[in-house]
Write a structure and sequence with these properties.
This protein has helices spanning about 20-35, 50-65, 85-90, 120-130, 150-165, 180-185, 200, 225-235, 255, 270-280, 290-300; strands at about 5-10, 10-15, 35-40, 70-75, 95-100, 135, 170-175, 190-195, 245, 310-315, 315-320, 320-325, 330, 340, 345-350. With about 350 residues, the protein is an alpha/beta fold. The chain has an eight-stranded parallel sheet with strand order 2-3-4-5-6-7-8-9. It has a three-stranded antiparallel sheet with strand order 1-10-15, with helices on one face. It has a two-stranded antiparallel ribbon with strand order 11-14. It starts with a strand and ends in a 6-residue tail after the last strand. The structure holds N-carbamoyl-L-aspartate and zinc ion (2 copies). N-carbamoyl-L-aspartate binds near residues 16, 220 and 248.
Length: about 350
């Protein structure tokens, strides 16, 4: 029997919207499903100051479809030179929701990332005192560490010492991909949470090499072995409030991905909520979807849950292969060209004040 589920309007706690024509093309997909989203700051150049975040927020609001009440929650990209006073002032003004730590060279557009945590000690201490959350891309960049081990090694070498050094700092381990990550977050002190993407719960690393190299399954952190995928599904559907929805939708053009050195990142926004619903249904846990998608994130960030609701129906629909840009470039959609099993029927009501 076709299942129907109504949940409070969800938020997406990890989104790359990019800028300019790409922003205009991808934003509607996020804005139609989610009331709020954490906007990642890894533009070129990155969003490193409150002034830059203010400009980027204005460009996002200007690109919204008419009538949308979507609220972008802005983040600053932490660098060795980040000024604690600017972070605190941006946060006090309600402009800056969080700060993002990219270890230098860990992922797309991270060359300005932090080289040594000792250099940002004053910023982290100030954030801890003021209640500004730190969002973390959790992979070491040591080339000697195997790519499939970089998250687990990061937890041991960097994350755990950081969580202990700043015991009051709110920390989100973004796009957790391993059973080690799940175990760490489950057992860590109060204030540590993690986002889980739909795609890391849907495929494992074999998809990247199925019959040839498949750039549209390549993202960072790279998908891991099957046992890790299963651990993520258990964590997301457990109801544990430390785990919440973050799609890591990360659009790149086909040209940038289908290349000798292709970019990391999947454009999952158009199918995001449908993919999560599919996973929760398969796990027999649709009753836990609302907590994961709409309650646990606001609770971690100290924000009110949204007021309206969204209704999802188990009805199959065809996903268009690509989203097109005015330049003629195309962005491949995750699961594009396939039938997916869930459709959003109605979204009703206003989001909570940001
Ligand atoms: N997830 C990705 O593979 N890529 C992201 C960066 C990131 O979230 O690490 C991007 O900005 O393209
Ligand atoms: Zn990342
Ligand atoms: Zn990301």
């Amino acid at each position: 029997m076709a299942e129907t589920i109504t949940i409070r309007r969800p938020d997406d706690w990890h989104v790359h919207l990019r800028d300019d024509a790409m922003l205009a093309a991808v934003l509607p997909y996020t804005a139609e499903q989610f009331a709020r989203a954490i906007i990642m700051p890894n533009l070129v150049p990155p969003v490193t100051t409150s002034a830059a975040a203010e400009g980027y927020r204005a460009r996002i609001l200007a690109a919204l479809p008419a009538g949308s009440d979507f609220t972008p929650l802005m983040t600053l990209y932490l660098t060795d030179d980040t000024d604690p006073a600017d972070v605190l002032e941006g946060h006090r003004r309600g402009l800056v929701t969080a700060v993002k730590l990219y270890p230098q060279h860990a992922t797309t557009n991270s060359h300005f990332g932090v080289t040594d945590l000792a250099k940002v000690d004053r910023v982290l201490a100030a954030m801890e005192r003021a209640g500004v959350p730190l969002l973390v891309h959790g992979e070491v960049t040591d080339a000697a560490v195997d790519i499939f081990d970089r998250e687990a090694v990061f937890i041991e070498r960097v994350l755990d010492p950081l969580v202990r050094r700043y015991p009051g700092l709110k920390v989100t381990l973004e796009h957790v991909t391993t059973e080690e990550g799940v175990a760490y977050v489950t057992e860590a002190r109060e204030g540590v949470g993690a986002t889980i993407t739909p795609h890391h719960m849907i495929f494992n690393r074999n998809a990247i090499f199925a019959g040839g190299i498949r750039p549209h399954y390549y993202c960072l952190p790279v998908a891991k072995r099957e046992k890790h995928r299963l651990a993520l599904r258990r964590a997301a559907t457990s109801g544990n409030p430390r785990f919440f929805l973050g799609t890591d939708t990360a659009p790149h053009t086909r040209r940038a991905k289908e290349a000798a050195c292709g970019c990391a990142g999947l454009f999952v926004a158009p199918v995001a909520l449908a993919c999560y619903a599919q996973v929760f249904k398969e796990e027999g846990a649709l009753d836990k979807l609302e907590a994961f998608a709409s309650l646990n994130g606001p609770r971690h960030y100290g924000l009110p849950p949204n007021e309206g609701t969204v209704t999802l129906v188990e009805r199959s629909r065809f996903v268009a292969e690509d989203v097109h840009l005015p330049s003629g470039d195309a962005v491949h959609v995750f699961r594009g060209g396939e039938e997916i099993s869930w459709t959003i029927e109605t979204a009703a009501g206003a989001s909570a004040a940001a």
